[in-house]
Automatic annotation (TrEMBL):
It comes from the Bacteria. Pfam families: 3HCDH, 3HCDH_N. Gene3D superfamilies: N-(1-d-carboxylethyl)-l-norvaline Dehydrogenase, domain 2, NAD(P)-binding Rossmann-like Domain. This is 3-hydroxyacyl-CoA dehydrogenase NAD-binding domain-containing protein. Residues 171-242 form the 3-hydroxyacyl-CoA dehydrogenase C-terminal domain. Keywords: Oxidoreductase. Residues 8-165 form the 3-hydroxyacyl-CoA dehydrogenase NAD binding domain. Belongs to the 3-hydroxyacyl-CoA dehydrogenase family. InterPro entries: 3-OHacyl-CoA_DH_NAD-bd, 3HC_DH_C, 6-PGluconate_DH-like_C_sf, 6PGD_dom2, NAD(P)-bd_dom_sf. Pathway: Lipid metabolism; butanoate metabolism.
Length: 299
């Protein structure tokens, strides 16, 4: 399915922005990249090569002037995003979709200074966006339903798996789920229950494998046999409630940060680039396998 996009803009050429550019150019969509950093163009070219159809500017207003959709991936600071969206809103055609990749800010706050907030929304990808299918889509109090639907359609045509949120929350959905896991993970490390390396191993070699295929609720359902999720909740739910009551609240201080950093350096120190390349290769293989198994739409 060819994406219904003539041209796109990516504002911010950090890791997320570059990954958006890679995804768009893969679908032969002309992209204007805006970033005030003079080195941004070299950074994009280093990652993508000399891609045809990519233009570089420093002014976001120029970038959005002829775009059907904009993917903002600037600094995660609300004041910066509000100013940036006000400028883009003043320059972009009225039918241009203005989306933010913000990992935590709500679209209502982002669109606060826009004259046309009806086309402003969050389309939060997971890093790297050119590989990981998930994009969380959520509108603000003044976002039009039609803008959300158009964004979902475009993302689906780009091979993404958009998840529409029906309520704004700081951190959206997936980051809140991650934060819940990280809170208990940090607590367990802080309490000396487990090392950083063994904690990572416990997830990557256990529940993480199943969650990558079906997600936590569907996995629970399958584990219940013929009774499914109802059996699991009725028979194993009460012990789980007891575990909830015993979950910890780590003290997020310098000592915890040092302990976590030291632990992960012992685990992967010096191998980061090789691990990143191996991870991305494995992600591609996993997505192919999921599509072949009927667990993932073919990318």
């Amino acid at each position: 399915m060819k994406p219904p996009v003539r041209a796109a803009a990516v504002v911010g050429a950090g890791a997320i922005g570059v990954s958006w550019v890679e995804l768009l150019t893969r679908h032969d969509i002309p992209v204007v990249v805006a970033d005030p950093d003079p080195a941004a163009a070299d950074r994009v070219r280093k990652s993508l090569g000399d891609q045809a159809g990519v233009t570089f500017v420093t002014d976001p207003a120029r970038a959005v002037a002829d775009a059907d959709i904009v993917f903002e991936a600037g600094p995660e600071r609300l004041d910066v995003k509000q100013e940036l969206f006000a400028r883009m809103d003043a320059a972009a055609p009225l039918d241009t979709l203005l989306t933010s990749s913000s990992s935590g800010f709500t679209p209502t706050n982002i669109q606060a200074r826009c004259a046309h907030p009806e086309r402003v929304l969050v389309a939060h990808p997971f890093n790297p966006p050119d590989l990981v299918p998930l994009v969380e889509v959520v509108g603000g109090t003044r976002t039009a339903g039609a803008a959300i639907e158009r964004t979902v359609d475009i993302l689906a045509a780009l091979g993404k798996e958009p998840v529409r949120l029906h309520r704004e929350l700081p951190g959206h959905v997936a980051n809140r789920l991650q934060a819940a896991l990280w809170r208990e993970a940090y607590y367990l490390v802080q309490e000396g229950v487990v090392s950083v390396a063994d904690l990572d191993r416990a997830i990557a070699s256990g529940p993480g494998l199943r969650w990558a295929l079906l997600g936590p609720i569907a996995t629970q359902h399958l584990s219940g046999g013929e009774g499914g999720l109802r059996h699991v909740l009725e028979h194993l739910g009460p012990p789980m409630v007891a575990w909830w009551a015993d979950l910890g609240e780590p003290t997020f201080d310098a000592a915890l940060i040092d302990r976590l950093v030291s632990g992960v350096e012992d685990e992967v120190g010096g191998r980061e680039e090789a691990l990143r390349e191996s991870r991305d290769h494995a992600l591609r293989e996993l997505l192919t396998l999921k599509a072949r198994a009927g667990l993932q739409e073919d990318q």
